[in-house]
């Protein structure tokens, strides 16, 4: 299982209720398991293989108790960009772009990268479970 360094204060299962309400959907179990172990933090390595490209990841945002938290980002980005409705911002790369997890019916579980300078989404990988495996595999290389 993926290990993250320098995580924020622990959360409990009830902390996901507000996040799911704000996002308008249900978070995958793998997301909850990761965040119950590590409320954000930094992976041991930054590069991993997506479906089509190699991506880099700098860190995971905490659900709460940190800045910026997923709850804060979700509210801010949702107000600014209607395209991001139903997407949960949970991590970021070295360039300040945001990894987004879909909780929408049409593509639930898909992970995207929000490229902020271009205001566009790039599909990263087909599920959160695959995302975690790819990041963990990148850390082993």
From TrEMBL:
One Pfam family per UniProt: SMI1_KNR4
Top-level division of the source organism's lineage: Bacteria
InterPro entries: Knr4/Smi1-like_dom (IPR018958), Knr4/Smi1-like_sf (IPR037883)
Transmembrane segments: none
Domain Knr4/Smi1-like: 10-134
Protein name: SMI1/KNR4 family protein
Species name: Pseudomonas eucalypticola
């Amino acid at each position: 299982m993926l290990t993250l360094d320098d995580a924020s204060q622990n959360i409990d299962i009830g902390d996901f209720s507000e996040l799911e309400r704000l996002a308008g959907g249900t978070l995958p179990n793998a997301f909850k398991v990761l965040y119950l172990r590590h409320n954000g933090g930094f992976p041991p390595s930054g590069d991993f293989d997506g479906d089509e490209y190699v991506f880099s990841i700098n860190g995971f945002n905490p659900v709460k108790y940190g800045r910026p938290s997923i709850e804060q980002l979700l509210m801010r980005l949702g107000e600014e960009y209607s395209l991001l409705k139903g997407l949960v911002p949970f991590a970021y790369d070295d360039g300040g772009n945001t990894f987004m997890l879909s909780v929408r019916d049409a593509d639930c579980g898909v992970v995207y990268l929000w490229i902020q300078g271009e205001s566009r989404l790039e599909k990263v990988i087909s599920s959160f479970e695959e995302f975690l495996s790819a990041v963990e595999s990148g850390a082993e290389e």
